[in-house]
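Morning. Coffee machine broken again, so started the prediction first thing and wrote up yesterday's gels while waiting. Chain of 268 residues, entered below exactly as on the submission form.
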Amino acid sequence: MPAGIDPNVPSVARMYDYYLGGKDNFAADREAAEKIIALGREVGGDAREIARENRGFLRRAVRLLARSGIGQFIDIGAGLPTQENVHQVAERHIADPRVVYVDNDPVVLNHARALLADNRTTIAVSGDLREPKAIFDDPAVRAHIDFTRPFAVLMVAVLHFVSDDEEAARIVDQVRERLVPGSHLVLTHAYQGTRDEAAVSCGKQVYSGTSAGGVATRDLSHLESYFAGLDLLKPGIVPVQAWRPEVPWDVPVDFTGFGILGAVGCVI
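Came back before lunch.
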C-alpha cells in the first residue's frame, strides 16, 4: 500500500479502472462504482460503456495526432495504466514519441512507473490538475518535452472533477497559454444534457465522497469556451462515441442525455 493512500476512500482513478474491467481497485472503489452503474441502469445508461467510449476517443485522438506528426504528449490526470495507453498508441504511428503521464494518485504513479521501467521515452510525474503551471515548469517535464515544438495536452475525463466553474476555466486558460503553434488540446468532459436530473444528482453525491471531492457536469457552452482561440478539428465538440468513430456512425448525435463530450483543438 503506497504511503498516503486510504483504501476506505474511493478514488476516481480506481473507479474508472473498475469500469474498464481492471483489478487495481479496492472494495470502497468497487462499491462506489457499482452505485454509479446502478444509477446508469435506472436511466438507460451504462457507466462502463461510457468509460469504454471515452477510452476509445483517447485512442483515436492520439492516433490522429501521431499520424499528423505530433510526437509529444502530456496526459494530465492519466489514471491507472490500462490497454491502449497514450504511449502505446503513439508508438505504433511515430518513432520514439515523448510522453509524460501526470497524476497525483500514488497508486497510479506506482503502476505507471513500474510499467515504464524500461521505456526511455515515456515518464510519469506527480502533478495536480489544479496547478498546470507547476506541471509545465516541473524540471522532469521540461527535460522531456521540447516546448518550442508542437505538443498535445490531454485532459481526458478529468476536468469535471473540478467542481468550481471559474477554477476549471482558469486551469484550461493556463494550459492554452502554454500551447505553441501546431499544438493541440484534447479534452473530454461529462455533460448532463436535459434529462435525468435526479440520477445525476445522486451520482454527484456518490462522487462527493471520493478523493476528488465531487464532480460537475457542464453544458456545451462551457466546453466551447475551453477551446477559445483554437481551431476545432472536425466534427467539433460531440459525444465521444461520435468523434471520428472507427465504424460508420449512422446514429444522430444526441446532446440531451447524460454522457461525455469530447473534442480536439489546434493552435494555428
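The chain is about 40% helix and 15% strand. Going to sketch it on the whiteboard this afternoon.
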